[in-house]
């Protein structure tokens, strides 16, 4: 099946190096083997309720939230999942790359991240059992179980792609599902994927 995934813009990556309080905006949605490193850990002190963590610790580096992607992928014509995915990047890497290679290289990075993120989302949805759970005690428990399973499958699939990207570009990034945003289709996924999505902008401040 086909995955639809929006993506960050180059300007945010560049601006982050200059100002740690740069606003983080959600883009307008648009159609869409390296050993994995240890899983990154969100900074729980910077997360509050339904708001994502603004920083994330990875390999001794503090990555900053630079963009929120919206994604939708169908497992079949009926089933699928959609939600928001958080992109973190290391500010010092951004500044160093900007000095060494200029700003234009980030457009290439954007294309690469967009491509592998859409593929990873599709892999994660394909690997997740979206059938009704007869053992769930209610809709909330069923939703939590699906969100957990999809998040685990996404992290497993994205780890080697991120490791390869970082090795080739020297830009440390991480991408993680924003669990509270995840929604699941048991019917009508393909129809939802085919529908145009109205522009939406979300601003998150550190």
TrEMBL record:
Residues 28-53 are annotated as: Disordered. Keywords: Signal. Residues 1-17 form the signal peptide. It comes from the Bacteria. Residues 43-53 have a biased composition (Polar residues). This is Uncharacterized protein. It comes from Methylovulum psychrotolerans.
């Amino acid at each position: 099946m086909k995955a639809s995934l929006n993506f960050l813009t180059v300007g945010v990556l560049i601006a982050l190096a200059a100002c740690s309080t740069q606003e983080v905006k959600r883009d307008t949605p648009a159609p869409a083997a390296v050993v994995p490193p240890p899983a990154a850990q969100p900074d729980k002190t910077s997360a509050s309720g339904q708001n994502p963590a603004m920083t994330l610790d990875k390999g001794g580096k503090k990555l900053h939230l630079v963009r929120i992607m919206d994604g939708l992928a169908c497992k079949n014509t009926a089933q699928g999942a959609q939600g928001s995915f958080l992109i973190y990047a290391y500010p010092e890497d951004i500044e160093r790359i900007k000095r060494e290679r200029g700003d234009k290289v980030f457009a290439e990075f954007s294309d690469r991240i967009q491509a592998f993120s859409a593929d990873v989302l599709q892999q994660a949805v394909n690997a997740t059992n979206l059938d009704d759970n007869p053992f769930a005690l209610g809709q909330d428990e069923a939703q939590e179980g699906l969100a957990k399973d999809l998040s685990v499958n996404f992290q497993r699939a994205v780890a080697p792609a991120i490791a390869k990207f970082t090795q080739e570009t020297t830009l440390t990034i991480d991408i993680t599902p924003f669990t509270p945003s995840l929604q699941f289709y048991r019917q009508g996924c393909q129809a939802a994927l085919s529908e145009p999505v109205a522009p939406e902008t979300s601003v998150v401040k550190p």
